[in-house]
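lol forgot to send this yesterday, sorry. struct tokens for the thing we talked abt
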């Protein structure tokens, strides 16, 4: 019997039907206890009334509940006659697909099967209808073991017909779907995991061709094809033929035995020769890559011989970004020194910020699919697994990992503060990472809930930049503190007590360790690379005694955070990486008509209410502060002078006389106000976590900001600017809400929220009333950095790929938004995607736009690769 919306099954409230199958109905439902949506598969009455089938149903659910894998739809439990499962968004698998996409999906399917096979569970009904692809490109395999209790709703359909038995083990009985059934299944013989491998081959064939491999008019005709037909191998790319032939062996004894061995059968084609028009630089990169690889191999060989010849000479060369791509930070080299990853904006598709990887046997960097929208802060720093296979990076308040050889990104945990400030991955599967305003955190490499490794000491602001030392226990990290002499680079241990902070090594912003490669270097020593006042320097560290020796040797100036080093003598960096950013004026047609200041490392930008001054944050020699520029005279002055206090975000008062900025001082975060004409700073309010101001109401009475409490996500608060100045909640949900802006008439607040899975622009009434949950969605396709026109009749926002959108709006008698339309695309810093800051502003009439821009094609400084840099230090 069909269930209607509002019906309850235990704690689950039916919301809507999803579909129907041979076993019964499938519904979207709400778990009223855990406040999440689930899928309920409610058994048909004929099943529910059969005690034997129900007993088997419960036993299977218990077994399948043990399958905790990111590519398997999770089973949460059993309620009455319903199976409670993860609600998977997306669409069923369909072909044809590009080869690399198909292989990415196939790898995830294989991972899911391998996890099941390791627990002696055989799917027996793998087919595209049981494989979902989420909007993020993650594969979810459904219905493990359900075929053992399912009967067909339409036995005449060969492509969607489980067989008519509930016994998967008894000889003479068959189970599965005809078009994806192995020959032994079709004959009614007992089956094992090799039946799943056959089905995997059929599914992969269909992904590549878009056609079913075995298609007959009836189930009998289809089964006959399974037993007799040989595939046309010319229909699939040569690269996968060997794999498919091994999966589709009709004799199970000759078939591939373990799905985990599938990737050994992929035939990699020989690397093509470079086209003549690809340019000398790329040809040189390929040649130099080979030289570097050979040099490193030779060096590794001679280094461990009893007699040591002279060390190889230092070598430098440069990596240029792909056409129309601008490098915007997050530079990292893999531990083996063979892969370089960076964040880039643009490209042929003018795409959003994403990660690009350059490998030594490749002529070009390629984008890592699934990283679109990667962390937006220049201070973000990603890191690698110890085996150089996985990359860990920040994404919309989450910590994610991705296999750089292919596959989707997977979420590991929430980030406790804005941005990712480094980390490491141990051989025993532990990840330690840092975030602003947080102690060091630890999470399993498979994901879970992150826990604090240490406590924050009194006056301490953050613990960041952890870097593992060779013993696998000790690590370097940076403590940021408001107490004099309490900050700097420390040595900690993964097995220390929470309040044992380790040994202080030196006064520096952050550091990493590289083993000594010189043949004459003492044992247990290496180089500590660290930043001090904008200069990259090196100093010898004895890792056995954890002591520094000798003097610091300066290496590079003007590098900033854009550097990384591998343990085999490869150092990568960029000089003057941010010097090209500009504060540029645009009109509504996208015409650029000048800048207001020379190039610099700009971040936040905001016009004064009368548009006569521009306030911006800029980093100079490693220190960030607020600066003011007179638009008419182009004269620039400095507003703040305490780099340890200012944390980067600010807003103007409606009369243009003051600025409120996010601050850190005396062991706490807060909101601090400063008069533009000069005077002392005034602390307005403080908290235990970062507070970011978003807007000052037009009547001057309220500040709206977010408080980044990791326990409750990012919530919007309002601070009255008169009276007691007691903060109050404006909006608190289970999602992140940021970038709030008051409407000119003070009746509405626009903000961005990730409640849909990506940030969109919403509007709510102000002030909020108890029980009033009214909201209106303004954007479609993602939205960030919203602004109102002064007359309240138009709103503007950026998309993640850098398009400035405009929307006609009205607020009488209620709020109404028109259809968003693009004004133009701009090379905005960060690609338009942010979580807590604003990189553009506009004049009150909505006719001119001031945007923090990055150079387009050809303007991004290259990445320099320095091999054997330690030899240069010695000389």
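and heres what i got for the seq, position by position
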């Amino acid at each position: 019997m069909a269930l209607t919306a509002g019906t309850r099954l235990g704690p689950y409230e039916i919301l809507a039907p999803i579909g129907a199958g041979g076993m019964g109905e499938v519904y979207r439902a709400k778990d009223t206890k855990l406040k999440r949506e689930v899928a309920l598969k409610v058994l048909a009455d004929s099943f529910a009334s059969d005690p034997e089938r129900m007993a088997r149903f419960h036993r299977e659910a218990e077994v399948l509940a043990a399958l905790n894998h990111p590519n398997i739809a999770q089973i949460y439990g059993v309620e009455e006659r319903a199976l409670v499962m993860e609600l998977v968004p997306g669409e069923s698998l369909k072909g044809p697909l590009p080869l690399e996409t198909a292989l990415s999906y196939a790898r995830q399917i294989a991972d899911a099967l391998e996890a099941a096979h390791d627990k002696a569970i055989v799917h027996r009904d793998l087919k595209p209808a049981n494989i979902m692809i989420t909007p993020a490109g993650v594969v979810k395999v459904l219905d493990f073991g359900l075929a053992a209790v399912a009967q067909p709703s339409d036995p005449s359909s060969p492509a969607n017909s489980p067989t008519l038995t509930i016994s998967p083990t008894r000889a003479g009985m068959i189970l599965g779907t005809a078009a994806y059934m192995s020959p032994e299944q079709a004959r009614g013989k007992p089956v094992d995991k090799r039946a799943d491998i056959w089905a995997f081959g059929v599914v992969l064939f269909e992904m590549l061709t878009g056609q079913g491999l075995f298609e007959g008019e009836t189930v009998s005709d289809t089964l006959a094809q399974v037993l007799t037909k040989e595939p046309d191998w010319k229909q699939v790319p040569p690269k996968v033929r060997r794999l498919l032939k091994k999966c589709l062996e009709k004799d199970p004894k000759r078939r591939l035995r373990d799905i985990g061995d599938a990737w050994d059968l992929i035939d990699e084609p020989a690397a093509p020769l470079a086209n003549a028009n690809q340019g000398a630089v790329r040809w040189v990169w390929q040649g130099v890559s080979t030289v570097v690889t050979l040099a490193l191999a030779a060096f590794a060989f001679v280094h461990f011989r009893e007699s040591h010849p002279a060390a190889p000479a230092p070598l430098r060369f440069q990596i240029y970004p792909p056409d129309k791509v601008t490098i915007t930070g997050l530079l990292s080299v893999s531990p083996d020194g063979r892969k370089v990853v960076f964040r880039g904006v643009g490209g042929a598709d003018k795409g959003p910020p994403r990660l690009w990887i350059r490998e030594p046997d490749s002529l070009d960097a390629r984008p890592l699919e699934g990283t679109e929208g990667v962390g937006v802060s220049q201070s973000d720093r990603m890191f690698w697994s110890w085996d150089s296979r996985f990359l860990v990076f920040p994404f919309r308040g989450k910590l994610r990992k991705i296999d750089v050889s292919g596959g989707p990104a997977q979420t590991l945990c929430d980030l406790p503060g804005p941005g990712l400030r480094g980390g490491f991955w141990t051989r025993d599967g532990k990840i330690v990472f840092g975030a602003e305003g947080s102690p060091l955190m630890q999470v399993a490499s498979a994901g879970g809930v992150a826990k604090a490794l240490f406590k924050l000491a009194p006056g301490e602001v953050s613990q960041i930049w952890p870097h593992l030392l060779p013993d696998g226990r000790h690590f370097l990290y940076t403590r940021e503190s408001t107490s004099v002499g309490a900050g700097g680079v420390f040595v900690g241990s993964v097995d220390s007590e929470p309040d044992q902070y380790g040994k202080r090594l030196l006064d520096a912003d952050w550091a990493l360790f590289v083993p000594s490669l010189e043949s004459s270097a003492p044992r247990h020593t290496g180089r500590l690379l660290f930043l001090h006042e904008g200069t990259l320097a090196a100093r010898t560290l004895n890792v056995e005694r954890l002591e520094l020796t000798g003097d610091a040797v300066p290496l590079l100036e003007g590098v900033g955070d854009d550097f990384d080093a591998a343990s085999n003598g490869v150092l990568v960096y960029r000089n003057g990486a941010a010097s090209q950013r500009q504060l540029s004026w645009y009109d509504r047609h996208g015409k650029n008509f000048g800048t207001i200041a020379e190039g610099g490392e700009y971040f936040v930008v905001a016009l004064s209410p009368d548009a006569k001054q521009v306030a911006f944050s800029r980093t100079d020699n490693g220190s960030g502060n607020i600066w003011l520029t007179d638009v008419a005279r182009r004269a620039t002055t400095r507003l703040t002078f305490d780099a340890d206090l200012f944390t980067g975000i600010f807003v103007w008062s409606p009369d243009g006389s003051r600025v409120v900025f996010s601050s850190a001082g005396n062991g706490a975060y807060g909101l601090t106000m400063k008069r533009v004409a000069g005077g002392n700073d005034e602390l307005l309010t403080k908290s235990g976590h970062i507070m970011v101001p978003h807007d000052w109401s037009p009547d001057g009475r309220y500040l709206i900001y977010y408080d980044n409490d990791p326990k409750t996500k990012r919530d919007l608060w309002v601070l009255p600017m008169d009276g007691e100045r007691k903060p109050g909640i404006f909006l608190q949900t289970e999602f992140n809400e940021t970038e709030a802006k008051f409407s000119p008439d003070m009746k509405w607040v626009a903000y961005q929220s990730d409640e849909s899975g990506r940030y969109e622009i919403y509007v709510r009434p102000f002030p909020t009333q108890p029980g009033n949950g009214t909201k209106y969605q303004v954007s479609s396709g993602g939205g960030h950095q919203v602004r109102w026109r002064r007359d309240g009749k138009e709103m503007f926002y950026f998309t993640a790929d850098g398009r400035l959108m405009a929307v006609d709006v009205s607020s009488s008698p209620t709020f109404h938004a028109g259809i968003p339309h693009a004004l133009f695309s701009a090379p905005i810093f960060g690609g338009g995607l942010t979580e807590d800051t604003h990189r553009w502003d506009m004049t009150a009439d909505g006719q001119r736009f001031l945007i923090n821009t990055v150079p387009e094609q050809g303007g991004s400084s290259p990445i320099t690769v320095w091999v054997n840099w330690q030899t240069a230090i010695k000389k």
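DSSP finds nine helices and 59 strands in the chain. anyway ping me if u want another try
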